[in-house]
Amino acid sequence: MKKHLLSAFSLLLVGTMVSAQEVAFEEYDLDNGLHVILHQDNSAPVVTVSVMYHVGSKDEDPQKTGFAHFFEHLLFEGTENIARGEWDQITAANGGRNNANTFLDRTYYYEVFPSNSLEVGLWLESERMMHPIIGQVGVDTQKEVVQEERRLRVDNSPYGAFFEQLLKNLYTKHPYRWAVIGSLDHLASATLDDFKKFNKTYYVPNNAVLIVAGDIDSDKTKKMVKDYFGPIPKGADIKRPDIKEDPITQTIYAKYNDPNIQIPAILLAYRTPGQGQRDAYIINMISTYLSDGESSKLYKKLVDEKKMALQVISVPIDAEDYSSYVVGALPVGENSIQDLKKEIDEEILKLQMELISEKDYQKLQNKFENMYVNANSSVEGIANNLAENYMLKDDTNLINTEIDIYRSITREDIMEVAKKYLKVNQRVELEYLPEQKDAN
After folding, report:
1. How far apart are alpha carbons 231 and 24 in whole angstroms?
2. What are the tens digits of pLDDT across the range 145-177?
3. Which of 36, 97, 432, 439 is most buried by its number of CB atoms within 10 A?
4. Domain 24-229, CATH among 3.30.70.20, 3.40.50.970, 3.30.830.10, 3.40.50.1860
5. Which of the listed CATH numbers 3.40.190.10, 2.60.120.430, 1.50.10.20, 3.30.830.10 matches domain 252-434?
6. Burial class, 12, CB count within 10 angstroms (exposed 0-12 / middle 13-18 / buried 19+)
7. Which GO terms describe its molecular function (predicted)?
């Protein structure tokens, strides 16, 4: 009885936390098309200034891949009013920090400052948008940086190429088929004009969202936003082709030999709906249930109980047009990757044929409640979520309502979506193997 009371209390506590943390925000457009979202939270003297551009690896020319990721580096090189090497110095001198990241559909830049340095953050991001220097010195410097990054993260890293190998097999038409880091040969052969054209096309206010979140005065912030970003000219409308993949109807078998590993892996990848669709949320729950963390079904079965696997791999790839669910494992002892595949398929089949238990369902719901609370526990996290919800899911207020989607998902929904998307004949099976040694 005591355990039931504690469980009920914990559920009530989580529910209270969720309902109490509604994120208030205001959004509007400048005349040049820049979308602005303000979130005022004066509980701590911290502010995040961020800009998300609607450009990722999918927007690249197939013969010039890697540009989106390259620009993540290049646009810290300097502007007409910020000398090379000064970006980080200015940020640090004002008590802040900065970073950026790139994915399939977007590129995100941000600074976190004490709130009395808000104007510095707005100036930096307006400079990046209006006055970037796309010069040969910066291009040559960042080519070397990206080459080294690829060597460290992909070419010389154990299992570093699996993302690239899966994408090239999951997609044949869509630009998701190449990895975000792209081709070093493409970057090496690109001209300065190629980079200038990419910047002129995508780094424009009408292809971006500006987020200011934290200890701000909304009225004063609006004036600063208009002063710094209002003069930036609107860019030409961007035309994106609507590229559809043919359905996968037969298992795609692939192999890759990685010279950096000694233990093979089996990876099963399924193409799933874009991240804004309800089924994508259900896939996220399935991923968490099956393979995310030590409490997942596959980890407990393969690692803890049967001791067949050294590790279980789970990589849900959320993206705008299509998402992917990747599950796999590394064998231990005399077990083979085929043994692991059989065990994984057994658990997927159970999910397709039986409802998960009420206890497991409630644990899953609790986990997503906690994830939701944690994702919005800082102004930095809130800024990122506001940007992604607006740009990639077309609904900024999902920051407040997304948890309701998860709450609405039933055990029956989980079973039906598993049946629909996790079919053997609709997947890529990648055998990720050590490099074969020359017998001679």
Report:
1. 28
2. 998 999 899 999 999 999 999 999 999 999 999
3. 432
4. 3.30.830.10
5. 3.30.830.10
6. exposed
7. metal ion binding; metallopeptidase activity
